[in-house]
Amino acid sequence: MKRIKTAIVGASGYTGQELLRLLLLHPHVELVAATSRQEEGRALSAVFPRFSKVDGADLPFMLPDPDAIAATGAEVAFLALPHGVAAEIARALLERGLKVIDLSADFRLRSAATYEEFYGHPHPAPDLLEEAVYGLPEVRGEAIAAARLVASPGCYPTSIILPLVPLLKADLLEPSTIIANSMSGVSGAGKKADLSLIFCECNESARAYGVPKHRHLSEIEQELSIAAGEDVTISFIPHLIPVNAGIVTTTTATLKDGASAEAIGRVLDEVYGAMDFVRLLGEGSCPDTKNVTRTNFIDIGWTFDPRTNRVILMSAEDNLGKGAGSQAVQSLNLIFGLEPTAGLQFV
Amino acid sequence: MKRIKTAIVGASGYTGQELLRLLLLHPHVELVAATSRQEEGRALSAVFPRFSKVDGADLPFMLPDPDAIAATGAEVAFLALPHGVAAEIARALLERGLKVIDLSADFRLRSAATYEEFYGHPHPAPDLLEEAVYGLPEVRGEAIAAARLVASPGCYPTSIILPLVPLLKADLLEPSTIIANSMSGVSGAGKKADLSLIFCECNESARAYGVPKHRHLSEIEQELSIAAGEDVTISFIPHLIPVNAGIVTTTTATLKDGASAEAIGRVLDEVYGAMDFVRLLGEGSCPDTKNVTRTNFIDIGWTFDPRTNRVILMSAEDNLGKGAGSQAVQSLNLIFGLEPTAGLQFV
Amino acid sequence: MKRIKTAIVGASGYTGQELLRLLLLHPHVELVAATSRQEEGRALSAVFPRFSKVDGADLPFMLPDPDAIAATGAEVAFLALPHGVAAEIARALLERGLKVIDLSADFRLRSAATYEEFYGHPHPAPDLLEEAVYGLPEVRGEAIAAARLVASPGCYPTSIILPLVPLLKADLLEPSTIIANSMSGVSGAGKKADLSLIFCECNESARAYGVPKHRHLSEIEQELSIAAGEDVTISFIPHLIPVNAGIVTTTTATLKDGASAEAIGRVLDEVYGAMDFVRLLGEGSCPDTKNVTRTNFIDIGWTFDPRTNRVILMSAEDNLGKGAGSQAVQSLNLIFGLEPTAGLQFV
Amino acid sequence: MKRIKTAIVGASGYTGQELLRLLLLHPHVELVAATSRQEEGRALSAVFPRFSKVDGADLPFMLPDPDAIAATGAEVAFLALPHGVAAEIARALLERGLKVIDLSADFRLRSAATYEEFYGHPHPAPDLLEEAVYGLPEVRGEAIAAARLVASPGCYPTSIILPLVPLLKADLLEPSTIIANSMSGVSGAGKKADLSLIFCECNESARAYGVPKHRHLSEIEQELSIAAGEDVTISFIPHLIPVNAGIVTTTTATLKDGASAEAIGRVLDEVYGAMDFVRLLGEGSCPDTKNVTRTNFIDIGWTFDPRTNRVILMSAEDNLGKGAGSQAVQSLNLIFGLEPTAGLQFV
Fold first, then answer.
1. What is the pLDDT, as a whole number, of residue C347?
2. pLDDT above 70 as % of chain D
3. Ranges of H-type helices in chain B
4. Which residues does chain B have within 8 Å of residue A235's beta carbon, measured at their own beta carbons?
């Protein structure tokens, strides 16, 4: 089988490194380009000693030049760039005939106005928003398969949206009562020399941040609104905890009048029971990040509290895996008609 | 100044160890007894190498025999025992004229029926419930000062109750909308050889547990109901995160009609601004456990989200400090008329 | 290609779990049996939620009965059992025609007397010692390929022996000056409910242990003696540090008269430069455990100190990977004539 | 009792923060000045939320101006500055009549040539070297008490020198055989925004660094040479491990001909048995960093290996405590004739 020639643009951060790991191992992918301004000319394996003696890791980093990327024959490019920067190179690569799977926030919102509200500057490529597909494979698999431009979701949104969507679609929850508390590993903050991220500032520490209006709220509310068929506004409180990777999210919502607790489990099972990367732990079980790190799984548990009439949904995923890199690879598999689990069968 | 002769019953766990640390250093306390069945006859410093060459730590552990404890001349005893066990020895010590500061759950609830509902067995000493004072010094300082039997609060309840009480008293919050998510260090689970607590099971892991009806809910709801003047039922979701000590709690609640966000900060400031161990970080600031570990401080931050009309309250404390040991010492200071900060001025 | 029917005996500990992970993913292996007395009848995925929805993980645990294992058609069995227990089942499986790759210490020593000296009881199967091959593929590849019984080395020995063997063979080091200091992650202590292993006892802690005569010294000295052609006695000091997995070992030795520092790098390069799983970082580079966790690589760096005439050798490996599970799979690949990297190409 | 007016120059790093903690709590100290260029004008408690509501922590940071410091009436200044910078301000403060306790490396070496060899630039104040006293209170208590300028030792040197000095003085060890392996917490690397220090790069990682000629070797060898009465050259290999604070050091050395293992324990006991801050764990016991963090203790264990004729010395200390801040306070107590344990009786 012919391998898909693939590029990673912005491969020197934590998400980029995870994409490298996944694509170097993917049986149907040939990594033909990886870009990094700082590391240009150095082999992947020189920059990341972890990849030394790994097949394909002698590839040198190149500059993020669209023509040069296209010249490698790449059919698809993953973008692991800051928001605002990704849009421009996405357009350039699309114009050169590549498919683009963008892991930044640039194409996740349908509304350029919402983008400007949450990100503080005008959208850099509003004309592409209509075409972009929000890349949650469990929710929008068909659209992803047909897409030229996929906006792969953020880590927090994935952990919040997936448990809620089937329940909102089934009209079981009061949308206005949704409150999500997430705890994320430090890799979610990116690989940057920031004093607040050094070991002694994060170890033996836990704290909320980004309240009350974290940027990812915008895509969360967009997707929940679509599922609910009405505008949904929620509370979202992210926290930083001292683990390298992993997110655990606890979401509470009030059951609608007439909805039964039993329906929660039934609907989740109907929608996700047969899906490859969603694991339902069942009522009363609490997911643990350690079971999902370095995988593409999201584990979901739930319970109902009759005292408050609230459902408690709990999910765990790897913020660099299902929350970033491996979820983007899931989209690649859909776009190119590969087995859904190709390159993602690690545990 | 005469030192207060003090005993610790059940001094070999994490809470007991923290009490040892605090009382060995307390300038107005003489530690005359520390009990442990397993360690009987061994010096504190032999069991806890950390206390080697510390003044007073050559005291040998004794059996938890009430007569023997009374014979040491102890005027007050701290109980760091499992619930169900503490009540009996509390009674015996009270009968022998000691004051008792109990860190178990045995005397925290006013209702024996609620105790049985949450703890699964009949209350072991229901006749003492009326006399016991729930030992939150910031809320019940006068009663504690006059008490013979103090029920020192649990770690989760302290972190949830303190931020809420002034706001409920001021009628600013809708009690039925309160949802508390807490993240606790592993020492909160106690010092026991449990497979789920070994390093590799907790490190690089985060998970909810004990949903939806954790035992501490009972005392939380009791205290919030008193503050609100009505029955309060809340959602409480505890999580375990890989730190030794510390709890961070995020509580959301809807503002009552007519209440203003400004009132939140004002009320907190009026009530807590001058208190020794509550530190208000101000609007928009998020407390971090690393600033409170090994202290008796609770740090409180808050923010208001006009999009949802919800207040977000965030608190951080040391689960073994303000959440257990040092808070109990605060009660000791009140009972014996000491400076409120005596023995608690560490940072 | 026909898959090799494979069994894991003792699959519920950390090493067993790592073997499960590797063998479930191995392209040329079919896992037909996994044993655990405690978990008998439960599916692998039920015991280890990490393996849920992983192909092959619905296999139920069975009892470690040799006849039952043989009845599955298994051609080879990995033993992840305590020393003393492994020998008996190894014999039974050999008698039933299986190859055995034993990860315990039972067959690592050539001398039953040395075994008794270090392990405190007579060897349980001394007649099998002559046949057993010490399973260090980089040192004894040919013998492993022909073996019926492989004694897969311990984690500390691998990290100490591999850097030293070529240098001792080349007569560059004074054997009597060898001192090895190792730091190991907590998983090396096994999955057991031991108070000294709980999170709060290991986190924010570092300590030596097992001095001066750790059991693994016996196999280390045996292998170094073979390489040196003379009896070698060394100092070995293991330490426990708060990471889940990984060992870093620092070994010092005095250069022999007439030996040159340049020869160190040259010899290492000649012997290991082309090997799949040894990565030479070069002079002056220090290996980091985080680059080798969950891989079969051992990273080796070195430096020479002219002030003391000592070579400093540094190695890093995953104690559950190259130090246990994946190294054992390397032996499987040799025995069955597979690609050396089959099933081991993860990063 | 009059409090000693004290200044901290360079109080915004980890060592500075530890000094702040210690001096704010010291019963005989009044903190009158703390300097930081970046934080000038901000209160200590604003920069370090941990010190909020702590007595004395409303002091604002000032610029490190010698005249301004002297104008506060300070009698003594602690310098927690980078090497090369400390010397100049030390001289200026000495000229203004202050005592100086310098925690940098600037005055630790007796030889300006050795300083230049190890630190790469000429010594900034060679005329002060003769006067400076190497501030190891257990070794040089009398000289410290009479000193105007104390060079407080580094963290690694303290952990290596203290166990060795009595044994070298007693002529029990072969100096040329000394090899020290140390593992340090990340705070030892300082509080700086360095990519190699961010959480995800240090967590789940262990690595050697700085081989073979770490800067601290110079002061270690100087002090060991004085104790041995001959030039001593050793091997020293530092490692970084993922804990906030703490150093554990393992030192091996060959016993001299005619020396007995029993003498090791006897000599250590004679010299250190009655000292306040050295705790001898006895033969066969291994010190653990978790017992010494946030204290001024150094714990020492040892064992003898008759197979190799080597002594294994193990020590544990807090790199910010006995290895930096609290050891400097020990010198303060000596200089001003206070109780040796004043302000250091925490556990």
1. 63
2. 99
3. 14-25, 44-47, 66-71, 86-95, 112-119, 137-145, 155-169, 199-202, 217-228, 261-272, 325-335
4. 252, 305, 308, 310, 312
**Which of A52, A278, A292 should one mutate to test binding to chain C, selecting the residue with the greatest count of C CBs within 10 A?**
A52
Q: Is D114 helix (H, G, I), strand (E, B) or coil?
A: helix
Residue D287: list chain C partners with CB under 8 A. Answer: 207-208
Question: Among this protein's residues, is C200 annotated catalytic?
Answer: no
Q: Which of D185, D165, D162 is nearest to D327 (CA)?
A: D162
Burial C40-54 (b: 16+ CB within 10 A, else e): eeebbbebbbbbbbb
Task: Give helix then strand counts, H and E, for chain D.
Answer: 11, 13
What distances in angstroms separate CA C279 from CA A57, C285, C307, one per listed residue? 14, 11, 27
- Structure tokens that stand for C219 in this block: 């196999």
Contact D236/A50 with Cβ under 8 angstroms? no
Residue carrying the six token digits 């082309």: C274
C248 → closest Cβ in D176, D208, D287: D208
Q: Please state the length of chain A.
A: 347
Structure tokens at C301: 């760096």
Task: Put the strands of the sheet holding A99-102 in their side by side order.
Answer: A29-35, A4-9, A76-79, A99-102, A149-151, A133-134
The predicted pLDDT at position B346 comes to 76
Interface test with A, best of B308, B310, B317 (most A CBs within 10 A): B308
Distance CA B162, CA B176 (A): 17
Q: Mutation test of the interface with chain C: which of A50, A280, A346, choosing the one with the most C Cβ atoms within 10 A?
A: A50
The Cα–Cα gap between B51 and D172 comes to 31
Query: In whole angstroms, what is the distance from residue C22 CA to residue C8 CA?
Result: 11
- Touching chains, B (3+ CB pairs < 8 A): A, C, D
In DSSP terms, which residues pair with D182 in a beta bridge? D238, D249
Cβ-based contacts of D276 with chain B (< 8 Å) = 53
Mean of all residue pLDDT scores within chain D: 97
β pairing state of D149-151 and D133-134:
parallel
Among candidates D212, D287, D303 on the partner chain, residue whose Cβ is nearest the Cβ of C305 = D212
Residues whose CB is less than 8 angstroms from the CB of residue A25 and which lie 6 or more positions away in sequence, other chains included: A343, A346, C345, C346, C347
C193 contacts B200? CB cut-off 8 A: no
Strand (E) or helix (H) holding B304: strand B298-305
Q: Cis (ω within 30 of 0) for the bond into A66?
A: no
The domains of chain A, with CATH numbers, are: 4-152+324-335 (3.40.50.720), 156-317 (3.30.360.10)
d(CA B139, CA A88): 57
Task: Look at residue A346 in the predicted model and tell me its pLDDT.
Answer: 76
Contact residues, B window 151-180, toward A, CB-based 8 Å cutoff: 176, 179
Partner residue facing D203 (CB), from A192, A195, A244:
A244
Span B105-119, pLDDT tens digits: 999 999 999 999 999
SS3 category, C78: strand
Work out the angle at residue D49's Cα, subtended by the Cα atoms of residues D47 and D54, and round it to the nearest 5 degrees: 105
Show which residues of A are catalytic: 155
Of C237, C102, C136, residue with least CA distance to C178? C237
Q: Which residues in chain C show pLDDT less than 50?
A: none
Calculate how close chain C gets to D168, using CA atoms only, in Å.
18
User: pLDDT tens-digit profile of D201-238?
Assistant: 999 999 999 999 999 999 999 999 999 999 999 999 99
Q: Is A312 helix (H, G, I), strand (E, B) or coil?
A: strand
CA max distance for chain A: 63
CB B32 within 8 A of CB B72: yes
Give the residues across from D310 on adjacent strands: D254, D305
Nearest to D200 among A193, A195, A244 (CB): A244
